[in-house]
Amino acid sequence: MTALLAPVAFASASSIMPQVDFARMGVVAVGGSFAGLDFYTANETNTFDGSTSTLLSRALSNGTTTAIASTNAGGSIHAVCSIGNTIYIGGSFSSLSGAAYTNIASYDTGSHQLAAMQSGLDGTVYSLYCDPSASHVWAGGDFHAPVGADATQYGGSVAIFDAKASTWSAPGFFGLKGDGASVRTIAPGTGSASSALYFGGSFLTSFASNVTVNSTNNPNVPYSPGATPFSSSLVPIPLDSSDVDANPSTSEAGYTNITNILCPAGADGPNNTWFSADNMLTQLTLRTNKFNNARGIRLGNTFISNHGTKTFRVAAIPSNELLTLTYIDPSTKANMTCSDSCPLLQDTTVPYQDFLFPDSTTLTGAQITLLEWDGDSAGLHLLQLLSDGAFASAITDNNGRSCYSPDASGVYQTGKWSIIDSTTTIAGTTETMLEASVAVGTTPANAPTLTWFPYVSASGVYNVYVYVPGCQQFADCSSRTSVDITISPGGGAADVTKTVDENVTADTKVLIYTGYVVPAAPAYTVSVKLALAANATGSGQNGKWAVIADRVQLELISLSTSGSGGSGGSGGGSLTGGASGFGFFEWNTGNSGSGVNATGTIANTSESSFDSVSTAFATALGSEAASAIVNAVAAASPSQLFLGGQFGGTSSNGTLTNIVSFANGGIVILAGGGLNDAVNALAYANGTLFVGGTFTNVQDSASSVSGLSYVAKYDVSSGAWSPLGGGLNGPVASISVSSSQGEIVFAGNFSETYSTPGATYGAESGGVATWDVSMNKWVSGNGLVLGSPSFVTVSSATEFIAGSISAVSGNSASGWAILSADKSGEPTLGQSASPLVDAALAGSNGTSSPPSNTTKSSRRRRGGLREEEGGATSWLNLRGLFGANTSPARLLSRDSTSELPTPPAAPAPAVLAMAFWTNQSTSHESVVLGGNFSFVPTATGSSSSLSSGVALYDTTTETLAPLEGPQINGTVYSLLVQDHSLWVGGNFTVGSFEGLALYDLYSLSWQTSIGTLSGMFLISVRSITNPPQKSQSHYVIVAGTFAGAGSVSCQAVCAWDTSASKWVGLGNGIQGEVASVDYAEDGSNNVLVVAGAISLQDGTSANVAKYYFSNSSWVAVGSGLPGPVTAVSVNNENVNDVFAAGRSTDGTTPFVMHFDGSSWTSVNTPLTGASTFSQMTFVPLLNSHSSNNLIHTDRVLMVSGALDSSTFGNVSSALFDGQTWYPYLTSTTSSGATGAIAGLYHSFTTFSFTQRTFLATGVVILISIAIAAGIVFFLLLAGVLWTLLSRDSSEMDHKMFAEEDDASVQEGPSSMLEHINAATRSTFMNPGSLGTAAGAGALAAAAGTKRQSTEDRGTWAAGASTEGGHTDADGWRRTETPATAAGAGIVGTGHEPEEEVGRPAFARYSFDGEGEGELPLQTGVQLAVLDDRDPAWWYVRDENTGREGIVPAAYLY
After folding, report:
1. Residue 30's pLDDT band (cuts 50, 70, 90)
2. Residue 1375 · residue 1364 · CB < 8 Å
3. What's the rounded Cα separation, in Å, for the pair 60 and 673?
4. 750 and 730 in contact (C-beta within 8 Å)?
5. Burial class of 354 by CB neighbour count within 10 A (0 to 12, 13 to 18, 19+)
6. Rounded to an integer, what distance in angstroms lies between the CA atom of residue 1015 and that of residue 893?
7. What are phi and psi of 444, to 5 degrees?
8. What is the DSSP letter of 1120?
9. What are the distances in angstroms from CA 329 to CA 156, 293, 334, 350?
10. I need a labelling partner for 120 at 20 to 30 A (CA). Which of 313, 470, 726, 1277 fits?
């Protein structure tokens, strides 16, 4: 290896990208392992951290995607809206793009800068609504107020930001905060209600009536500014019988006993306070030995000098999970959170602080670690574990007295009850409860009863539950029956009774009631009674029913008081308990809001037209409202609304589940009773409601609608559900309407769309899918977004997408895509409509048809498709099969010392080989795909079973057809089509064949004529080619990893002689493995060039070797290559101009080398050690690059694989012009990883690199007119002279002349000129200069033509010859061509002429060819020019169909 070439430049952002002339190559496609494909754009980010939430903007016009911001790890973006050039972003985050922002921020699209919205909001933002007319941004969520604001000025869950003043304010209705409330959606009204806003979520409203419910509180609960009224109302869990330990504790008398602080009897001091050991980190452990529903922990600091706790943390027992705590800052009233190093104030005005868990948490205890202290040691005066409300057990002894309670919760029994024990999941513990044995048929009046009297600290809205132990552990399921549970909520409210079936196999928690509970003083209790049901169920066992009584739980939802704090005494205001609402609130933005407080009682005069929705909804849900939530609201009209979420209930019209409509003041039940799981998003457009969520069908199975897989549409006028194709393969989180595009866009945790109901396999969509309303089908939209987007919205010409995103791509491509150029020469990608899937994930009995996504951009049919030779597209790493220290090459050869490097990853679906074929029976053009994939055929008449390895993609019908018969088991790496024979190579088995098989595309069957390959352990074919030289065109060259073919020993490369139907070794052969193949010429010698991990038979290392067909000899191409070669390309068929790429022998360094006929020289590249190469090939240019001594100015070298560069990052393909590297294509797999391109494939086997220039169309027309006028004048003059000279000739046969002149009836526009040319042809034609194969070859060389293969299409049929010409396949007579004039043979004499080779050309424009003798053209079709002497019209043959005719010369190049 010699020194490096002159320094090579790396393309900068301002570099002009070479423009590849794809049209010259016919249909051009790339294949590889990817789901998304893009042309490289400098400084564009395509991959993201999936642990964050990223906001993207995507242009609807071209799919250009821009990353706006990403949150901190674990953060989320839930909502986006915009006013002018400002985007507002809401969610749950502490930072965006590394800068601190609390849950909300703005972004200026002009300056590309983020900005704070004051200090943000103190909780999660779920919804945003921008009102440009008022410059207001409405925010909804589970926050209370802006950070740092006076919390008393906000009611919670809703706040307004004034974009002009940059200030926050409460809404006109104050807020929707009962503690624990949340707003999940804000939707605008429509039509005459356009000034209305609709709020949905989980919150309560109440409208005035004439009944007043007085609120009461236990006055013994001490007040602390470190607690809220809500947390102060949670009853502490009695810990008298619990195991409470502090380690280490002080030895100071009066401060050692930790139990003294569970409910201290006096002030902070001896026997009421506890100290830890001096200067020791201490852990406090509480074990109740039973499961509790805990809501928080209460800590009171000690204020004794030189002691006190500063920070702590809490972990749950038994999960050991570090808990996130929420607490109030006494000074700012702001809600704060902490998990580690939570602060405990040392302020004597704050006797205790309440730290709440995120939700009601089931635990058996807690471990509190005191991390920092004041003075000598930590200390506490109060320690309590807070319940989630109130509770009572059926066993009196289990009802310990809670701190501050007048007495313990009570229980009252009638009849006979027995104590029974139940095992728990806590080792060595049991739980006691009561059982009554009742004779079957006993009436409720004569049956035992049990009434709980739970101690309730304060009035409020509660969920009331009863626990029913499972019957399985007691083996008494057959004796269980049903009971009536009656709660007396107090405050004058009516009793509520619910029947509960106790025949449950597992322990069950049953919701009995949701609503106001008002405890009765002085005991502060309510009553919950259990009795035998009026219509008891079950037949009993041995004539007995078993009735079980365990415990009740009251979960506090919100307080009924409108006061704010104060002492713990009674009072605090009252709440008017009239019509109660849930989950929905309407507000007119034009309302001044004077006197309206939606957190309290709303006066009847403030009710809106849709407020009855809230109350009707609450009535229908009943007690189920406790677990219900409204996720989405959509207005179909000013008088009709839809609510979607997770809920269930019953109205007078029937059962409603997860979705409901309100119209004309009442509930409207949707068809099928709703949907069978949660609704997350709604969008209304033109009479149709689009729905997304986690559902898969309607609720009522009898009304099942196939295809409602996570998405559905509902026709509002007909009231009928229907699917969107076959739906999606995962849940939908968000929906947006793109009115300008006529599309509905969905975002969520899915990756595929299905075209038909019941489809098993779908088209790759990523996490964003687009439904075209007019086409009524899924379309590929604007590219691919991988991950789990949680939000999408379309604003004007831009789409905003947010969520956990791993990668994005501007083009969705399932393993392959078509490349072309637009009129300006800019490259474009045509998205493949091939739903290939992962063979490993696909089922073996797939019977349904997968979808075929339709590209929104227009398609044009490519002409001139013909077979493409297989190329070296990828290779296998064999080391893993034999062990790290064993080379497969060594297993095949004594002398080879290297092996092929690890190839680029190719996870399915991957297209690793392509060929092109025209079905003569249908005239349809097909792209043959090979690789690592599976698919369900979509072509008419094809088998519907899962197929794999090879697919025929019909470009006319856009359908996939399989190879009938046994399916390929493995991976295909190479394909070659010859006539109707398909050669398939790779690492696979099919039937009895391994690594290589032959398939007849007409008989649709595998052929056995080629025999089998042999190998010691593994057979892999990486290249199947047909030599371009005519003298070797009868060979099929097979290369890869194998030891022999048939009975012939031919390691790594072998030839199939199609004329003799046998395998032939190439000379003495080589040793090792071949990865790539190309062809060259050395003077008059035809040469095969192979590359890989190779040595010659004499042991000479030759990772690039050449084989001379003329003398059957192998020769190393230079020496000094640093390692195995995985890609090779010969420039201009010159054996002394070769490029090779691979990796060093030690596998650490990639290399690109050039051979100039004497030595290999290293080509400087920007590539790093991670790069791998799959293919190198030369492609023609539209624009020339600057001249250099390495690559001609009319072409560039395209290098494909998995390329990594410190300069331009990861790309899958790059262009090299001899001095500059240009990153070209990037790809992404469906997992978000960087993809790889296996190769570039084209349908034209011969194309010219020479760039041609053309006159403007107008100039060409003028020149053509001038030439035509001159010809007409010349012909008229010739005719006059001929008439004068022949007038007296007696030998003239006028009739014959007339007949000869009439012979042009079926000839083309230039036929008259052709007759004149024919008369003088022999005077200027030089036989052999144009009409022979050698002459054609010389022309091709002169034009810079690349020849890859020549197809033998046979000779003309006998009898086709006529005077002055012959008849072509279409029956058109034509005059002699240069070939027939110069060297025509005589049919039947053994000297028949070979088919005219002509010179290659291609159609630059389409031509309808409707005139007599004219040949229709399609842009890009490959032609052979047979006669070009007429300057305006040339006689050509279509190399694809064999048809001949005349075409405008200016239409060709």
Report:
1. very high
2. yes
3. 37
4. yes
5. buried
6. 11
7. -60, -35
8. -
9. 16, 25, 5, 11
10. 313
| Residue of 1092, 1046, 1024, 1068 lying closest to 878 (CA atoms) | 1092
CA 224-226-231 angle, to 5 degrees, is: 85
Q: Tally DSSP H helices, then E strands, for the chain.
A: 9, 98
Q: Are 1343 and 1431 in contact (CB under 8 A)?
A: no
Three-state SS for 1343?
coil
The pLDDT tens digits of the residues spanning 692-710 come to 999 999 999 899 999 999 9
Instruction: For residue 661, give both structure tokens.
Output: 């409509």
Per-residue confidence at 1030, pLDDT binned at 50, 70, 90?
confident
Going from the C-alpha of 652 to that of each of 378, 655, 658, the distances in angstroms are 61, 8, 17
* CA-to-CA separations, 772 to 737, 745, 756, in angstroms, rounded: 11, 9, 15
Map residue 772 onto helix, strand or coil: strand
Two tokens, residue 1050: 């031919």
The answer to whether the Cα torsion of 1284, 1287, 1288, 1290 is positive or negative is positive
Give the whole-angstrom CA distance, residue 1423 versus residue 1406. Answer: 13
Residue of higher predicted confidence among 1006 and 606: 1006
DSSP 1364-1401: TEEE-TTS-EEPPPHHHHHH---TTTT-PPPPP--EEE
**Residue 1112: both structure tokens together:** 């059957």
For Cα atoms 809, 875, 827, give the angle at the middle one, nearest 5 degrees: 35
> Which residue has tokens 């985007």?
87
Q: Of 812-826, 1004-1018, 1058-1072, which range is least confident?
A: 812-826
Tokens of 1048: 């012939």
Nearest-angstrom CA–CA distance, 1375 and 1381:
9
Place of tokens 């729905």: 691
Helix, strand, coil percentages for the chain (3-state, nearest 5)? 10, 45, 45
DSSP letter assigned to residue 378: -
Residues 953/957/963/967 CA torsion (nearest 10 deg): 80
pLDDT digits (tens, 9 = 90+) for 754-806: 988 988 778 888 899 999 999 899 887 667 888 899 999 988 778 899 999 98
Q: Which amino acid is at 437?
A: S
Task: Give all strands (DSSP E) within 1300-1450, no chain letters.
Answer: 1345-1347, 1361-1362, 1365-1367, 1373-1374, 1399-1402, 1422-1427, 1433-1438, 1444-1448
The two three-digit tokens of residue 501, written as one number: 């079936």
Q: How far apart are CA 853 and CA 870, in angstroms?
A: 28
Our CA dihedral for 82, 87, 93, 96, rounded to 10 degrees, sits at 170
Query: Side chain identity at 1302, as an amino acid letter?
Result: D
In 696-783, the DSSP E strands lie at 711-715, 720-722, 727-728, 732-738, 743-748, 752-754, 763-764, 768-772, 777-779
Nearest Cα to 91, choosing from 83, 107, 102?
A: 102
What pLDDT, on the 0 to 100 scale, is given for residue 855?
34
pLDDT in tens, 1400-1445: 888 877 788 888 888 988 877 888 898 888 878 889 898 888 888 9
Alpha carbon distance, N-terminus to C-terminus of the chain: 41
DSSP 1049-1068: E-SSEEEEETTTTEEE--TT
Whether pLDDT at 569 is above 60:
no
CA 471 to chain centre: 46
Residue 238: cis peptide before it, omega within 30 degrees of 0: no
Asked if 512 and 487 touch (Cβ cutoff 8 Å), the reply is: yes
Q: What is d(CA 454, CA 229) in angstroms, rounded to the nearest whole number? A: 20
pTM of this prediction? 0.60
> Regarding beta strands 1035-1041 and 1053-1057, do their DSSP bridges make them parallel or antiparallel, or are they unpaired?
antiparallel
